[in-house]
Amino acid sequence: MRQQRDTLKNPQHELRVFRIRALMALVVVLLLTGLLGGRLFYLQVVQHEMYSTRSEKNRVRVEPIPPTRGLIYDRNGKLLAENRPTYNLTLVRERVDDLDDTLSLLVDILELPEDKIEAFRERSRQRQRPFQPALLMSDLTEEQIARLAVNRHRLPGVEVEAQLLRYYPDAKLMSHVLGYVGRINSEELKSLDSGNYAATHFIGKTGVERQYEKQLHGEAGLRKVETNALGRALRELDHTDPKPGKDLTLTLDKPLQKHAVELLDGRRGAIVAIAPQTGGILAMASVPGFDSNQFVTGIDVASYQALREDPNLPLFNRATRGNYPAGSTIKPFMAFAGLREGVITPSETIYDPGYYQLPNDDRRYRNWLRWGHGRVDLERALEVSNNTYFYSLAHDLGIDRIHDNLARFGFGQRTAYDVYGQSAALLPSREWKRERFGEPWYPGETLSVGIGQGYLQISPLQLATATAVLANRGDWVQPRLAAEVGDEPVPVDLPDTPADIELTHDRWWEVIISGMEAVMSGNEGTARRSGVGLEYRMAGKSGTAQVFSLGKNEEYNAEELKERLRDHALFTAFAPVEDPQIAVSVIVENAGGGSSHAAGLARSMTDFWLLERNAGKPREAAGAATESPSSEQGDAQ
Amino acid sequence: MSRVDLPMGGRDAMRSPLSGMSRRRSIWERIHLDPWLLGLLLVLMLAGLGVLYSAGGQSLDLVIGQAWRFGVALVVMVVVAQFSPATLYRWALPAYLVGVLMLVAVEVMGDMGMGAQRWLVIPGVIRFQPSEMMKLAMPLVVSAWLCRHPLPPRLRELVVCVALVGVPVMLIAGQPDLGTSLLVATSAVFVILLAGLSWRIICALTLMMAAALPLLWMNMHDYQRQRVLTLLNPQSDPLGAGWNIIQSTTALGSGGLWGKGWLQGTQSQLEFLPERHTDFIVAVLGEEFGLVGMLVFLLLYLLIVCRGLWLASTAQETFGRLLAGSIILTFFIYVFVNIGMVSGILPVVGVPLPLVSFGGTSSVTLLAGFGILMAIHSHRRLLPR
């Protein structure tokens, strides 16, 4: 019989097997039904008494109370994000007889466009429990409240509810760095802790508001209320206060932030300023910005579309997410790599005829000065931003050592402690290129990286961070936005801080830095015009990032290029040299050369911080323990 | 003998059911319906409408709407019952492929942000849930596949089955609709078990499944995990996911032996119960009619299952037998999962109570399934004894 089955179907056997299996299934069905019956018996007979009591008590309803969102202050205790009392329109679906009628009546009364009906309908669904009021509209005007009050009898289930609404007094200045809160959407609703957020309508969407959502939100409270037969609350029986969210004190300095935004006004760009000794981010501006308050009350589609489609990308946080070629601002870090790897010494020189050639290659990699700088050592190479020197250095180092040493400064990584949405940008390596393009690394590409072009990309935040580490002579402090969460200070030394960087001789740091100082104050310094009248010692480096790549041996003519194809202007600096209080990176998109179009902005930032904000007062505010001579000079001005 | 028992070879014979020497056919056999099953279903639906009236806040509109849906579903059932098993056999693969394609379409459109992910919407024309169609297409295609080979199925055939089941189940689970995907998979598992899969393989597979459980857990959405955790301790989250279970067990428990009486349930009428006219309608039933009412409904369901299993085991073709058996057992699983969920022994998975919960699509699918069952039974060729 068994053998027969292998070749031919055996209907009798199949029927028999089926009947046996069906009988077994029936037994299982009976057992499972018995299980259900048993469970029901347990609930309805054995535990009947208990549930009966509970059911009586179920006239008592538990309602969640939203916690008050934590406030956000700048380093001087100036309020950056507060909670303003506003009036919201809410709807309890169970109490509405005819949703369609009610919604169209509402739209009539409030004189809103017809298409709001659908939006209201969608919002009326966004809730977690029966009898939970759904938020239809926030920030009602006095007139709207009055209109609703008059028509109250026609609108059962519709209520005007007082609520605290997020408000940013300096929305335009802080739009990117603070971020904003917005209505919780259905996607977020799924992943949220439904108990804690039961009464919360808003959640941090980007920036600090998002990064510190957990701390800012707090814990929901409970209110037990007795209801009548229709479920309307009669009186409160019990009350657990919500735990308000923690207040945040940021390291940001509002006047400095304002100064940065004003410097960039009318252009596209970013400025990041960091206090090197504490890692505190003093300013982080991305221009153009937007009005974050619009997002709190619910931005209308047309305005949102306009923001999204604006070619100047106002919603884009250039400071943290913008990726730019570093241009010559990478040179101090290349100098570090050369010194550390023993490829160059401070006193060694090269001769610059105006170009560099790879062995066995005709192509001329040009210095920006056509006839060359002649003999240059490291300091002069930085001062005049000599390309030939750094081509040669890059060639001698090779991409592997360049990669490893630039990585020590945080390039290609996300090193900030609490900056939401920071970009890792791109620090290229042999492996990266093989993975990305399936191609080997070519020597010419190493030269490009050597002067901050080619595949290398950095963000303004990374550039400021690396400059701060350089200012600290290799000591790492993670950049951060929060100084205190609740009453807890954020420690300077964080567990994930990258390792401190060391050079063979400590004085070699001073060589790099004095090269950068010469950029500002030397006879040939590229930014000497921005260095005129400095009252403190400032170190800087200009950079010009090519957006538009030139053909071989072609020349660059700014006039002929369209504005969008013009170079990005970069500058990175720190001051004072002997006791760094501020490291600042500046990027102005399509402005042209960094020495002429970005250096002045960086100088203005350091002047403002050292001479105006911290003039004549102890350096605690700037994050330093000791007073430096520069502040006294500031008084003299 | 062997000629007529092969589903493929038997096609000619099936086309002319009266070609055999026949005894007189009853009126029920002429219209291809089973009076017992039909009667039980009608009783269940009528009782269901009564419960719905109370659960839906005594809204007559709701009940009339549901009655209309039942009407449509019954018409579908009668129509489906007219097809011969041979026709169903031929349609199995196309139906399955169309179902999978539509699931993919839903996936793609969901990605493009066009509406909810479970529905296929041709604006203004139709709103359709492809996973609903899979509930029938799945047992169809697996039965059709298995009966082409000698039974019990060997490992080779089983591998094909796993592929057939896996694709749509993954797609549905990704929607994400874990409940429906498990039910669709279950219907296929029933076909395989009824086909006589050897106990050795069953044991091995069960062990493998148990081993795969942690993997499933890791791939679940947070809200799905929350449901399982809440089942273990509903009090841990009284405002969130635990709300449903606490309210439904309270409603059931307070009903007691005889219940509070029709329209008298405080939990239901005071609107503490969520989804009380859809997935949680059993809580209303249990509160207002007590344990006795619940047992009456359980008995009704049990009788339907017994009749269904009887129809299945008297089918002449293996294809029909497997299909009918799977459909009726899956029907029972709906009942078990729904009542188990409401009474707090299973996680909340969003399965309606068959033919009692409010909702159109699911009743159409269910009654179409019963149509297939009746078709299989009533298209038997009447052979001389």
From TrEMBL, chain A:
<feature type="active site" description="Acyl-ester intermediate">
    <location>
        <position position="328"/>
    </location>
</feature>
<dbReference type="GO" id="GO:0005886">
    <property type="term" value="C:plasma membrane"/>
</dbReference>
<keyword id="KW-0645">Protease</keyword>
<feature type="compositionally biased region" description="Polar residues">
    <location>
        <begin position="627"/>
        <end position="637"/>
    </location>
</feature>
<dbReference type="GO" id="GO:0008658">
    <property type="term" value="F:penicillin binding"/>
</dbReference>
<feature type="region of interest" description="Disordered">
    <location>
        <begin position="617"/>
        <end position="637"/>
    </location>
</feature>
<dbReference type="InterPro" id="IPR012338">
    <property type="entry name" value="Beta-lactam/transpept-like"/>
</dbReference>
<dbReference type="GO" id="GO:0071972">
    <property type="term" value="F:peptidoglycan L,D-transpeptidase activity"/>
</dbReference>
<keyword id="KW-1133">Transmembrane helix</keyword>
<keyword id="KW-0133">Cell shape</keyword>
<comment type="pathway">
    <text>Cell wall biogenesis; peptidoglycan biosynthesis.</text>
</comment>
<dbReference type="GO" id="GO:0009002">
    <property type="term" value="F:serine-type D-Ala-D-Ala carboxypeptidase activity"/>
</dbReference>
<dbReference type="GO" id="GO:0009252">
    <property type="term" value="P:peptidoglycan biosynthetic process"/>
</dbReference>
<feature type="domain" description="Penicillin-binding protein transpeptidase">
    <location>
        <begin position="269"/>
        <end position="602"/>
    </location>
</feature>
<keyword id="KW-0961">Cell wall biogenesis/degradation</keyword>
<dbReference type="GO" id="GO:0008360">
    <property type="term" value="P:regulation of cell shape"/>
</dbReference>
<comment type="function">
    <text>Catalyzes cross-linking of the peptidoglycan cell wall.</text>
</comment>
<keyword id="KW-0997">Cell inner membrane</keyword>
<dbReference type="InterPro" id="IPR001460">
    <property type="entry name" value="PCN-bd_Tpept"/>
</dbReference>
<dbReference type="GO" id="GO:0071555">
    <property type="term" value="P:cell wall organization"/>
</dbReference>
<feature type="transmembrane region" description="Helical">
    <location>
        <begin position="20"/>
        <end position="42"/>
    </location>
</feature>
<protein>
    <recommendedName>
        <fullName>Peptidoglycan D,D-transpeptidase MrdA</fullName>
        <ecNumber>3.4.16.4</ecNumber>
    </recommendedName>
</protein>
UniProtKB/TrEMBL annotation, chain B:
<dbReference type="Pfam" id="PF01098">
    <property type="entry name" value="FTSW_RODA_SPOVE"/>
</dbReference>
<keyword id="KW-1133">Transmembrane helix</keyword>
<keyword id="KW-0812">Transmembrane</keyword>
<dbReference type="InterPro" id="IPR011923">
    <property type="entry name" value="RodA/MrdB"/>
</dbReference>
<keyword id="KW-0808">Transferase</keyword>
<dbReference type="GO" id="GO:0009252">
    <property type="term" value="P:peptidoglycan biosynthetic process"/>
</dbReference>
<keyword id="KW-0328">Glycosyltransferase</keyword>
<feature type="transmembrane region" description="Helical">
    <location>
        <begin position="91"/>
        <end position="110"/>
    </location>
</feature>
<keyword id="KW-0997">Cell inner membrane</keyword>
<feature type="transmembrane region" description="Helical">
    <location>
        <begin position="355"/>
        <end position="376"/>
    </location>
</feature>
<comment type="similarity">
    <text>Belongs to the SEDS family. MrdB/RodA subfamily.</text>
</comment>
<dbReference type="GO" id="GO:0008360">
    <property type="term" value="P:regulation of cell shape"/>
</dbReference>
<dbReference type="GO" id="GO:0008955">
    <property type="term" value="F:peptidoglycan glycosyltransferase activity"/>
</dbReference>
<protein>
    <recommendedName>
        <fullName>Peptidoglycan glycosyltransferase MrdB</fullName>
        <ecNumber>2.4.99.28</ecNumber>
    </recommendedName>
</protein>
<dbReference type="InterPro" id="IPR001182">
    <property type="entry name" value="FtsW/RodA"/>
</dbReference>
<keyword id="KW-0573">Peptidoglycan synthesis</keyword>
<feature type="transmembrane region" description="Helical">
    <location>
        <begin position="178"/>
        <end position="195"/>
    </location>
</feature>
<comment type="function">
    <text>Peptidoglycan polymerase that is essential for cell wall elongation.</text>
</comment>
<feature type="transmembrane region" description="Helical">
    <location>
        <begin position="202"/>
        <end position="220"/>
    </location>
</feature>
<feature type="transmembrane region" description="Helical">
    <location>
        <begin position="36"/>
        <end position="55"/>
    </location>
</feature>
<dbReference type="GO" id="GO:0051301">
    <property type="term" value="P:cell division"/>
</dbReference>
<dbReference type="GO" id="GO:0005886">
    <property type="term" value="C:plasma membrane"/>
</dbReference>
